[in-house]
Amino acid sequence: MPSTLEAGTIYGYCVGEPWNQQAVFKGIGVPVITDYEIWKNNPEKVFGVSKGWADKYPNTHIRVVKAMIRAAMWLDANDNANRPEAVKILSKSQYVGADYDVIAASMTGTFEYEKGDKREVPDFNVFFRYNATYPFYSDAIWYLTQMRRWGQISEAKPDSWYMDIAKKVYRPDIYAQAAKALIKEGKAKASEFPNFATETGYKPPQKEFIDNVVYDGTKPNAYLEQFKIGLKGDTQL
């Protein structure tokens, strides 16, 4: 995307790091806003597999999730102390391949909006803190509400439909197996995870959106009704 922007083929883009910082470093563009400012601690990247693969290789599935949890813990440990080492790995050509300084700009707790305007954003990239790795049903339902709002889901659906779809796709049960195995092996502490005995899979109502509209994952249609623009239960724009 930075090279396409530099060529003048496009005038802007929406992308993850390090490609916004790449534009700043090359002097060809500036970020307008970050997703952290649109929705604080929003869910981002995902590890997804097909149901067929998950059913065929359950042990492998759990072990991969275990490895990803450990990696996330390592990235956030000791106030991000391991991030420089992670940036060194990511900057290799066989991985991200961007310059070390470009990747480090956001990975190590800062963000540069334009040349010389570098700000401290310690939680710009969060991998494990705030239960970042946990597959909350409410996150899945938020995405479904947006698909409904903007027409990708053409018909109105009851709240139960959103919840049923979320439970088919997001698998906190598999996550719990992986986390409990790490605890048993002494590679993690129970206090670092949600209380699986009481966890519902839904975050409390969230207020930290740029539009100040409160989102309650247990009430998707009520959430949609709060917007003046977009599809709702009556399919009106």
Helix-strand pattern:
HHHHHHHEEHHHH
Q: Overall pLDDT, averaged?
A: 93
Strand order across the largest sheet: 1-2
| Contiguous helical run count | 11
Gyration radius, rounded: 20 Å
Question: What structural class do the secondary elements suggest?
Answer: mainly alpha
- The oligomeric status of these chains comes to single chain
Q: Which bin fits the share of residues in helices?
A: 40-55%
Largest beta-sheet details? 2 strands, antiparallel
The fraction of residues in strands falls at: under 5%
Report the uncertain regions. none
Q: If you had to describe this structure to a student in words, what would you say it looks like?
A:
The protein is mainly alpha-helical and 237 residues long. Among the domains are: 2-47 and 77-120, no CATH class; 134-171 and 198-225, no CATH class. 45% of the residues lie in helices and 3% in strands. It has helices at 2-7, 19-26, 35-38, 51-56, 58-80, 83-90, 100-107, 137-149, 159-169, 172-184, 220-225; strands spanning 110-112, 118-120. It is globular and about 50 Å long.
Précis, in short:
This protein has helices at residues 2-7, 19-26, 35-38, 51-56, 58-80, 83-90, 100-107, 137-149, 159-169, 172-184, 220-225, and strands spanning 110-112, 118-120. It has 237 residues and is an all-alpha fold. Among the domains are: 2-47 and 77-120, no CATH class; 134-171 and 198-225, no CATH class.
Secondary structure: elements and pairs:
Elements: H1 2-7, H2 19-26, H3 35-38, H4 51-56, H5 58-80, H6 83-90, H7 100-107, E1 110-112, E2 118-120, H8 137-149, H9 159-169, H10 172-184, H11 220-225
Helix pairs in contact: 2-7, 5-10, 6-7, 8-9
